[in-house]
Amino acid sequence: MADYPVFYVTADLVVLTVRDNALKVLLIRRGVEPHLGAWALPGGFMRDGEDLDTAARRELVEETGLTAPTGHLEQLASYGAPGRDPRGRVVTVAYLALVPDLPAPVAGGDAAGADWAALPVGELAFDHARILADGVERARAKLEYTPLAAAFCPPEFTISDLREVYEAVWGARLDPRNFHRKVTSTPGFVEPVGRSVTAERGRPAQLFRRGAAQLLHPPMLRPTT
What we know:
Elements: E1 8-19, E2 22-30, E3 39-40, E4 43-45, H1 52-64, E5 72-79, E6 90-98, E7 111-118, H2 128-145, H3 159-170, H4 176-185, E8 190-198, E9 204-210
Parallel strand pairs: 1-6
Antiparallel strand pairs: 1-2, 1-4, 2-3, 2-7, 5-6, 8-9
């Protein structure tokens, strides 16, 4: 085994939510070297006996005080360029989490602070700016061909709520009537719950929940301009 280099494995998380009609990412301020005081994605080293999913969820709780995401969690990609971490050869497995609006995070572990940050966020520690960019693009693409926009919403939501998610993630305004028609006519995207709420201007708005579809046919394509 002496011919094989020693390396370490970390799990980092791109946690995205929609707050105040804007796409935001969960960041922590590093309380230890390297990059002391810099903003970074939550994450850390795997421990003995942990698998990757367990490590990612533990780091989220320890560094931010938030419970494990209740929306959608998936592996994003692996990053292992030499020199990406000054502590040695470190390979990170990044996760993407799409979650409903959550409470303000409370820093813990080796994090000196934690907050939801609006995009773009500027410089980040390590190669986290690249990981974040990959995560945001994955989220934008997911909204085109899957119903995962509902992961940003509470269990019951209006079509207007869902449209605001698309607008925040894509950074584009969408025609309300056209969007309503596309969503409600796409098989399995959403299903009515049989109740309404008072919406803008006192008008009742029908409540929906996520349907059973795993893929959208036809897809919800991003505006080209």
